[in-house]
Amino acid sequence: MKYRLTSPCRGSNTFDALPEREVCLSPEKMCSLLRGLGLEIKVESDVMAIGQKGSIEVAIYRRGKAIIKNVKERKEADALARKIFSKMG
User: Fold this and answer.
1) Which of 19, 40, 65, 88 reaches 20 to 30 Å from 3, CA-CA?
2) How far apart are CA 6 and CA 12, in angstroms?
3) Per-residue pLDDT tens digits for 26-81
């Protein structure tokens, strides 16, 4: 699935990845996507799931938006987003 990667704040180590088409993910699917990245689930709800590995944190929302925090470079965020969205649709 195609996505758009943006950084909400210049110089930030946080990136938003937004799907180009509408999706609706179950809590189980959100957690499965995070576990597929090797992340430990920290928060799980009907609306979002958050996973963490080391300092990197990824939140996935029911509508497919992913927030990737504490990455060093845009290409690291893009690699994570690519893995998420390749399994999303």
Assistant:
1) 40
2) 11
3) 999 999 999 999 999 999 999 999 999 999 999 999 999 999 999 999 999 999 99
Q: Which residues contact 46 (CB under 8 A, 6 or more apart)?
A: 27, 62
DSSP label at 73? S
Q: How many CB atoms lie within 10 A of CB 56?
A: 19
pTM of the model: 0.93
Q: Which two tokens stand for residue 32?
A: 């499965």
In angstroms, the CA 70 to CA 47 distance is 22
Tell me, what amino acid is at 87? K
pLDDT at 9 exceeding the cut of 80: no
Residue 2 contacts residue 85 (beta carbons within 8 Å): yes
Fold of 3-88: TATA-Binding Protein (3.30.310)
